[in-house]
């Protein structure tokens, strides 16, 4: 596979992780209908931002902005929900660990790989 194809696959996986996490977060708080609507909104924003990033060239912030927004919001919400409960620190860690391992770390690792592939692809003469 070419680096460009790998970039598209990684961008798709990041978008799917974002859609799933934000959709499940909203559906757990507000119900299934709002979860579905938020998942569609996240997918639309991610698609629109990826188009702007493609047009922006090598130093585009458009791809990173929705990823940070949709990653930071669930993280702040999970931390806030965990801190407001009257539980021990270990219980908070146990509650927060699946979110970190299943969402935050994969998104961060995929972003690192995506930008390395983007640098490599943009540096190659075509």
List the topology elements.
Blueprint lengths: L2 H28 L1 H25 L7 H21 L4 H35 L3
Helix pairs in contact: 1-2, 1-3, 1-4, 2-3, 3-4
Give a brief outline of the structure.
The protein has 126 residues and is mainly alpha-helical. It has 4 helices and no strands. The chain starts with a helix and ends with a helix.
Task: Characterise the protein shown here.
With 126 residues, the protein is mainly α. The chain is built from four helices and no strands. α1 packs antiparallel against α4 (89-123) and α3 runs antiparallel to α4 (89-123). The longest helix has 35 residues, at 89-123. The model has no long low-confidence stretch (mean pLDDT 75).
What gross morphology would you assign? Answer: globular
Low-confidence stretches: none
Strand content: under 5%
The secondary structure category is: mainly alpha
- Quick one: how many beta strands? 0
Query: What series of H and E elements makes up the topology?
Result: HHHH
- Fraction of residues in helix: over 70%
End-to-end distance: 16 Å
Rg, Cα atoms, Å: 17 Å
How is the quaternary structure best described? single chain
Biggest pleated sheet = none
Question: Residue-averaged pLDDT, rounded?
Answer: 75
- Summed up, the helix count is 4
């Amino acid at each position: 596979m070419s680096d460009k194809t790998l970039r598209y696959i990684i961008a798709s996986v990041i978008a799917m992780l974002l859609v799933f996490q934000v959709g499940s977060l909203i559906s757990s708080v507000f119900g299934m209908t709002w979860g579905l609507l938020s998942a569609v909104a996240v997918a639309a924003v991610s698609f629109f931002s990826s188009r702007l990033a493609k047009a922006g060239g090598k130093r585009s912030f458009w791809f990173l902005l929705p990823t940070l927004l949709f990653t930071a919001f669930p993280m702040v919400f999970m931390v806030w929900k965990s801190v407001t409960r009257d539980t021990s620190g270990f219980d908070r860690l146990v509650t927060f660990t699946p979110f970190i391992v299943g969402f935050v770390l994969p998104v961060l690792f995929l972003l690192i790989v995506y930008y390395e592939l983007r640098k490599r692809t943009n540096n190659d003469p075509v």
